[in-house]
Specification:
Length: 247
């Protein structure tokens, strides 16, 4: 599989403090990649560099073949980014919010209508589209956030803590949705999270960030073998804690 994200020595410093240091990784097309680490590990800073929203202090990145510093617009057209806190107009309905997003992306009206209805159905909000977003639960807002991304037919989704604050039912719906989009539409997903059990459920490979550095990269089986030996269990939390304690 080809790499849809590549970084080489990617580094970001703020006021003498290093947020991300010498990051080199690949996210492969068609996979769900788990980007793990505690709060402050550098995950969000990495995402902002990949999207061209902040410039690296050193190193380079390629997303869908483009340099985020020089060519951020083609990346924004093909990548859907769901931040930790999704922003919507609460006094508009879900459908009206999506219509506004379609207009911003200059999608023709007839095409936009079809995309909006398809997106709402995909995320399970077809019957809630005319409700004001101010009345949505957090889980519904998160799913509307995914619908917003689907309106522009992304090749890659970058999701920053998409299940944070959701109840178990909302979490299961979100994880099932992510897995379904990957399986049925072939959308590559980069899932940033510190919730290890959820990452283990749906991710093909994982990268572990600690204190701004990538300390592990591979499948859960590969990480378990490297850190705990042949025949080791595949408990991601135990594997993660081994790396965390050593770092």
């Amino acid at each position: 599989m080809a790499a849809i994200i590549q970084t080489q020595g990617l580094t970001r410093r703020y006021n003498g403090q290093t947020a991300v240091e010498d990051l080199s990784l690949e996210v492969l097309e068609g996979e769900i990649f788990g980007f793990l680490g505690p709060n402050g590990a550098g995950k969000t800073t990495t995402i902002l560099m990949l999207l061209g929203l902040t410039e690296p202090s050193a190193g380079s990145a390629r997303v869908l073949g483009y340099d985020p510093v020089r060519d951020p617009l083609p990346i924004k057209r093909q990548v859907g980014y769901l931040p930790e806190n999704v922003g919507f107009y609460d006094d508009l309905t879900g459908r009206e919010n999506l219509r506004y997003i379609a207009e911003l992306n200059r999608i023709p009206e007839a095409e936009a209508t079809a995309k909006i209805e398809s997106a709402l159905a995909t995320v399970g909000l077809a019957d809630e589209g005319d409700k004001l977003v101010g009345a949505y639960s957090r889980g519904m807002r998160q799913r509307l956030g995914i619908a917003e991304l689907l309106v522009k037919d992304p090749r890659l989704l970058i999701l920053d803590e998409p299940t944070l604050g959701l109840d178990p039912d909302g979490t299961n719906k979100m994880l099932d949705l992510i897995r379904d989009l990957n399986r049925t539409r072939g959308i590559t997903v980069m899932l940033s999270s510190h919730l290890l059990d959820q990452v283990q459920r749906i991710c093909h490979r994982v990268g572990i960030m600690i204190k701004g550095r990538l300390v592990a990269l591979g499948t859960i089986e590969e990480l378990a073998r490297r850190k705990m030996g042949e025949g080791a269990g595949l408990d991601l939390e135990e594997i993660y804690m081994r790396y965390f304690k050593e770092t």
